[in-house]
Amino acid sequence: MSGNSIGKLFTITSFGESHGAAIGCVIDGCPPGMALSETDLQADLERRRPGKSRHTTQRREPDAVRILSGVFEGRTTGTPIGLLIENVDQRSKDYGKIMDRFRPGHADYTYYKKFGLRDYRGGGRSSARETAMRVAAGAIAKKYLAERCGVTIRGYLAQLGPIRAEAFDWAPVAENPFFCPDAGKVAELEAYMDGLRKSGDSVGARVNVVAEGVPPGWGEPIFDRLDADIAHAMMSINAVKGVEIGAGFASIEHKGTEHRDEITPEGFLSNQAGGVLGGISSGQAITVSIALKPTSSLRLPGRSVNLAGAPVEVITEGRHDPCVGIRATPIAEAMLAIVLMDHMLRQRAQNADVRTDLPDIPAHP
Amino acid sequence: MSGNSIGKLFTITSFGESHGAAIGCVIDGCPPGMALSETDLQADLERRRPGKSRHTTQRREPDAVRILSGVFEGRTTGTPIGLLIENVDQRSKDYGKIMDRFRPGHADYTYYKKFGLRDYRGGGRSSARETAMRVAAGAIAKKYLAERCGVTIRGYLAQLGPIRAEAFDWAPVAENPFFCPDAGKVAELEAYMDGLRKSGDSVGARVNVVAEGVPPGWGEPIFDRLDADIAHAMMSINAVKGVEIGAGFASIEHKGTEHRDEITPEGFLSNQAGGVLGGISSGQAITVSIALKPTSSLRLPGRSVNLAGAPVEVITEGRHDPCVGIRATPIAEAMLAIVLMDHMLRQRAQNADVRTDLPDIPAHP
Amino acid sequence: MSGNSIGKLFTITSFGESHGAAIGCVIDGCPPGMALSETDLQADLERRRPGKSRHTTQRREPDAVRILSGVFEGRTTGTPIGLLIENVDQRSKDYGKIMDRFRPGHADYTYYKKFGLRDYRGGGRSSARETAMRVAAGAIAKKYLAERCGVTIRGYLAQLGPIRAEAFDWAPVAENPFFCPDAGKVAELEAYMDGLRKSGDSVGARVNVVAEGVPPGWGEPIFDRLDADIAHAMMSINAVKGVEIGAGFASIEHKGTEHRDEITPEGFLSNQAGGVLGGISSGQAITVSIALKPTSSLRLPGRSVNLAGAPVEVITEGRHDPCVGIRATPIAEAMLAIVLMDHMLRQRAQNADVRTDLPDIPAHP
Amino acid sequence: MSGNSIGKLFTITSFGESHGAAIGCVIDGCPPGMALSETDLQADLERRRPGKSRHTTQRREPDAVRILSGVFEGRTTGTPIGLLIENVDQRSKDYGKIMDRFRPGHADYTYYKKFGLRDYRGGGRSSARETAMRVAAGAIAKKYLAERCGVTIRGYLAQLGPIRAEAFDWAPVAENPFFCPDAGKVAELEAYMDGLRKSGDSVGARVNVVAEGVPPGWGEPIFDRLDADIAHAMMSINAVKGVEIGAGFASIEHKGTEHRDEITPEGFLSNQAGGVLGGISSGQAITVSIALKPTSSLRLPGRSVNLAGAPVEVITEGRHDPCVGIRATPIAEAMLAIVLMDHMLRQRAQNADVRTDLPDIPAHP
User: Fold this and answer.
1) Chain D residues with beta carbon closer than 8 angstroms to that of A221
2) Handedness of CA B317, B323, B324, B327 (dihedral sign)
3) Taking the mean position of all CA atoms in its chain, how far away is CA A111?
4) Where exactly are the transmembrane stretches of this chain (chains A, B, C, D) (predicted)?
5) Which residue of A174, B2, C222, C315 has the fewest CB atoms within a 10 Å radius of its CB?
6) Best of D14, D69, D346 to disrupt the B interface by mutation (most B CBs within 10 Å)?
7) Under 8 Å between Cβ of D345 and D9
8) Is the ipTM of this complex over 0.90?
């Protein structure tokens, strides 16, 4: 394919521009017989949806998704699931000013050089609007993995600019607009974001995602390793600049004796590996951390050039997220779910009849 | 494919176990007409080869590669290039002791659970031995990219355990066994590695890779982004636990005004993006940084279980790298070359006839 | 992917059931800059559309296609083109009678055994309704190939049941409802079809497709041969049971001296090969012939079993084509166009800079 | 990939030229735990091997295959299986005369125009030599399908030039050099082939392949239909010009009432479909028929042009099959096995947990 598909057996093919007629995707490879309806997708779409708090873009996207195929009498049929969201709130006028110039830090210039023309309306294909389809497709994978495989996938905001979550609890994640697991930091985050918004600037963030309940054996040597496919999926999200599995960059200063996760009959004694050994799941929690850059859509003027190469000043008006990382949590969960779903199917295909006498080694708590 | 291939148009399919009869790969998609011989591959294989200094495993692998097909009268024919390295120094006896147990931090357990059996000789398929084929294939991509596209790909060791390169110069990289760009640190590295080796422990490292001369336009939206494919390729290397593009994790604390790379007619004013915008090359240097974990093959005893689930002590004798990161530089260069070669071909396919009046914006020095 | 995509660089991913909400597809890989609008697609959709003569099903499908993405200001942008046709004339009641039984000669039984459930409305995913999307996608390929590569793709009905076209002329093909190149046979075809319709039975057909103007060099050894990919694409059309390239099955009784297409400086002396040698286009006309089975949807009772395995009688009411081959011509043209478009892009990728002094050998007239 | 791989989950990647150092392939996706050794592959290689009777080329190829990886202690490990056959009997001198000219009916011209150069020794990559690897890989698929799925795959020569097999029995197939199921025709075939060889000419053939024991449910809508993938695999064999499934081209004159395979609780009443409905196996025998053209390598002079476009006479000396179809039977079996193996794995992946109360409908005897 030419770049708009992901997954080998659970394949998502996405289309649509930010301000075109609609965005959509095709999910090919969902097993038959799973109960599925639009409401199953809407929940995660809501978590991603902008405009829910004053800390995200006020662009109003109802994001009402339609299932066009692949579901009959409330169950998946095994045929491709077509999803569609019509674009309703397009406000193209917001973008007229930038049609002749390249916003710094955006894909305007690279799309123009690659394709020779570009849909400048709201960033066209390169807009974060596209991630709505990742979330919708990911919701299907999450549902299947939860119901059939006992896998739970959850994410949270680990850091926003200078502010790190210190305490950790899953409960508050769903209760604040930042997906922050440290309830004590929410006020500080509110204040910081208010100041940031007033300043007109933006900031980066770190999002962590965890998959629990993945059995040993998912992932393929040598190139389609589970961690390699996760890195691919995460880096394919707008604004992501770094990916870590397990100890990640901290491994640089680790000694082998502290990093290798020793094993006892009672279970693994640590999880520096982040649940993946040799590209294959170990049965421990799969832990992923990603870095998101600050958005480059700012009302503070930036230097750039126009189509003629002449210097211009760029001011991005309209509605933008001062921290795109805030809404990235459900997107990162979706991408992890899509990769795990794909590798679960691959494991089934090749190793359906593998049995060993050795029980699974318990994960490190 | 089932995991042992990488690349869509420039496709590497790899096979072979550490202590089997041979390792090899097939390179499908190399354009015809390029001069190629074994000596073109041997240079990078030498850079990766163990046993060149006291700081790497003393396993002796001549790593003499044979080109079996795809080259006629000294030029590539456009048909698949088959490469083969016979395994000569196998010393299986070194590994007899671990046939019934799982080395902690290795793929022994995950391979066993996935496949129900495993080739325990030297780690079998999961051994770093496999990376020799990445280097050989990468050498072909590097040669084509250099000769036909003016792209230069170079890497270096940025950090080894606690020791960071501070000064930077490409010259010393080729002149010390660590690929270190800071000549002033070499003595410190020597001493540190000697101590580490005596202690029986191992340590992690950071390797950086840079591609210069990549024109704007390589990379595909949405999922096959250039940076996403780079992340996939890098994370597929043994022991890699993290990948950064451009500013990477530092982006978390960046403000938008400092991160967005502003543009003037004279060129980009910075390169926080690492040469990729919206998944497409910008014409700036593509900068990648990876974290490698310390090897888990230690002579210091570690706790684990055997095939029966009973507790055992694991001691890895034989010859191992106290820092696998030292030899990772040519491997990382190879993977970057393979990804760039693939995307160069994809750009040619889809956008061969794209022309714009706008000259390329110069890269930030 | 899981079966609903075709093409490596020009990739069509299709979705939708006969009587679901809509059918659609995503075309990923269309080069940018080509003028494109719905009217470009509608022409071929009209040629395929049922209900245009009394000889095809009277099901009324306006088949109004919407372009949802990938086109901006009238030109393709290089991003995926999303196409959608809402299903308007569903008449599910026609099919209520067969929900509990398997129509002989249909996919009812195989879908049920594969997926454990099926959308029985009008055949669901296995309905010929799906071919509308092939035609729409093929129209894009045909337009690009015609405008940029000088390739013309045309098809015709070579045989309908016992009636063979004997005279050949392209002119009448567009002027009769059978796509028959032998104007003298049209009356006979009319009479035959009227009798067939009265009898309640159906009949098979042969459709030929020809691509002219394809330069030498399209197609890849060894498995992705141009003729192999054509065979795949043709056999993927509902009801196709056989595919021939060039002389096809007549080759069985050929002598080598008569079959090999000799060459003179003035050109090839024959075209038994059908324009493909070693899987690569030779510059001669690419000639393909396919056999289509008679539809199994008959009002004449047939024996079958129901979901409980009990014997039942099946009568298919509703509107059906007594000869599905009649409408297959634009579908076969579309599939040939899709394959050629894909291989043109692949040839560009790998061999963009190949030049030879030898001029192309002229095709046999 | 670029054409030298086939299969999505059971993937064969092939390399090697007729007179290069070696030919080989990588089989990626074979499930672990199956007993496998070189002797398992050698049996089918022997059936394909030339020089066994006076009716095939006298080129002596020991075709001794080595398993280089993926097998440990006599069992497959689930990692890629590397196969290698060194080329021993190269006799390049036979081919010196054709290095500057294009043999009519061969791939010489198309390879030259595509790649700008070609390995002219024995046809290089386009030689039938390449099919040895198909047979070796197919033997692995056949073994797995037989042992784990109860699938039997057998082929035979149905027609050689004007001589058709009339009686049918599997027994004689293995007992004559033609794979002919009609013992009474063997003498006629011997005489015909002796005359043909003396004349210096060649002739075409028809080979049929049958797979029995395939359960319902293998194959994917819409494009990766089982029959479409079979057509692709068969048409990818050198010299194949046509493919039929089930009734094939006879379907053109069939009435729906005779073609649709009616069903009773005792089983299907016929098998015009050839075991595939809607692209999915029905549980009936999968029947495939292919047409092979006569070889163009003749000692009888043929007209062609040389690299300068000047007229030349081509005489192919050396050793060639007067009927390549004779040796095609094991190749066609191998390709069918590879496709079925791939779809068996795909069915496992997506529909592992599908159950229906309906027992499989018995096949028509």
Assistant:
1) 79
2) negative
3) 22
4) none
5) A174
6) D69
7) yes
8) yes
Helix (H, G, I), strand (E, B) or coil at A238: coil
- C48-97: pLDDT as tens digits: 877 777 777 766 667 799 999 999 999 999 999 999 999 986 555 656 67
Residues 6+ apart with CB under 8 A from B191: none
Residues of A in contact with B234 (CB under 8 A): 231
Question: How confident is the prediction for chain C on average, in pLDDT?
Answer: 93
Domain count, chain C: 1
Count of alpha carbons within 13 Å of D277, Cβ hemisphere only? 30
| Interface-testing mutation among A1, A111, A125, A140, with chain C (most C C-beta atoms within 10 A) | A1
Cis link prior to B222 (omega < 30° from 0)? yes
Does residue C359 fall inside a structural domain?
A: no
How far off is chain C from D179, nearest CA to CA, in Å? 16
Q: 3-state DSSP call for residue A341? A: helix
The enclosing domain of B281 has a CATH number of 3.60.150.10
Does A360 contact chain B (CB < 8 Å)?
Answer: yes
**Chain B stretch 135-194, residues whose beta carbon is closer than 8 A to a beta carbon of chain A:** 159, 161-162
D122 vs C: CB within 8 A: no
The alpha carbon of residue C142 is apart from the nearest alpha carbon of chain A, in Å, by 19
Q: Which residue of chain D comes nearest to C269, CA vs CA?
A: D303
Write the secondary structure of chain B as one string of H (helix), E (strand) and C (coil): CCCCEECCCCEEEEEECCCCCEEEEEEECCCCCCECCHHHHHHHHHHHCCCCCCCCCCCCCCCCCEECCCEECCEECCCCEEEEEECCCCCHHHHHHHCCECCCCCCHHHHHHHHCCCCCHHHHHHCHHHHHHHHHHHHHHHHHHHHHHCCEEEEEEEEECCEECCCCCHHHHCCCCCCCCCHHHHHHHHHHHHHHHHHCCCECEEEEEEEECCCCCCCCCCCCCHHHHHHHHHHCCCCEEEEEECCHHHHHHCEHHHHCCCEECCEECCCCCCCEECCEECCCCEEEEEEECCCCCCCCCEEEEECCCCEEEECCCCCCCCCHHHHHHHHHHHHHHHHHHHHHHHHHHHHCCCCCCCCCCCCCC
C303 contacts D265? CB cut-off 8 A:
no
The domain in which residue C205 lies consists of 5-351
CA distance D173 to D182: 8
Give a yes or no: residue A240 inside a domain. Answer: yes
Do C293 and D259 touch, CB atoms closer than 8 A? yes
CB B118 within 8 A of CB B112: yes
Which residues 15-74 on chain B approach chain D with CB closer than 8 angstroms? Answer: 15-17, 20-24, 26, 28-29, 32-33, 66-70, 72
Decide if D365 is inside a domain: no
Q: Tell me the average confidence (pLDDT) per consecutive run of 10 residues in chain A, 365 residues long.
A: 90 96 97 97 87 72 89 97 88 69 95 94 91 97 98 98 97 95 97 94 97 98 97 97 98 97 97 98 98 94 95 84 92 98 96 92 95
Judge whether A362 is closer than 8 Å to chain B, CB to CB: no
Q: What's chain A's Rg over C-alpha atoms?
A: 21
C319 annotated ligand binder: yes
Q: What contacts A352, CB < 8 A, 6 or more positions away?
A: D31, D348, D352
Give the closest of A33, A79, A346 to D349, CB-based: A346
Does residue D12 have a cis bond before it (omega within 30 degrees)? no
pTM score, whole prediction: 0.97
Residue in B161, B242, B255 closest to A249 by CB: B242
Supply A110's token pair: 């690279």
Q: CA nearest B222 in C: which residue?
A: C79
Please give the structure tokens belonging to residue C187: 């009356």
User: Which of B80, B82, B117 has the CB atom closest to D77's CB atom?
Assistant: B117
Q: Inform me whether the C-beta atom of residue B355 falls under 8 Å from chain C C-beta atoms.
A: no
Residue C93 lies in a domain: yes
